[in-house]
Amino acid sequence: QVQVVESGGGLVQPGGSLRLSCVASGTAFDMNIVAWYRQAQGNQREWIATRLRAGAYNYADSVKGRFAVSIDNAKNEGILQMNNLQLEDPVVYYCKATLRTREYWGQGTQVTVSS
Known about the structure:
0% of the residues lie in helices and 60% in strands. The chain is mainly beta. The strands form 2 sheets. Strands 2, 4, 5, 6, 9, 10 and 11 form a 7-stranded mixed sheet that branches. A 4-stranded antiparallel sheet has the order 1-3-8-7, with no helix packed on it. Strand 5 (46-52) and strand 6 (57-59) form a beta hairpin. It starts with a strand and ends with a strand. 29% of the residues are buried.
């Protein structure tokens, strides 16, 4: 059974950094695409970044220049490096991993930016 497990959230001060991880297990297929989303309570889920295994990537304007998305091929792991985090309400970050042709969502990990 395929599982996609996220980790790395937590509390950070404004201007700080966090590294989110999204690991796929229970599959022989490579993670071809990883996409990251975030959702504040009461809001819709917002796309923020996508990375293809082949190398192409794209970012939402709100995170461009501060966030970096990558895939560790050896670990079948999607990574979101977040730098210069800004003050905002508690937000849950979700990854969506594409393995072969199927998409799998992680369980979400909460990030709180507060002084």
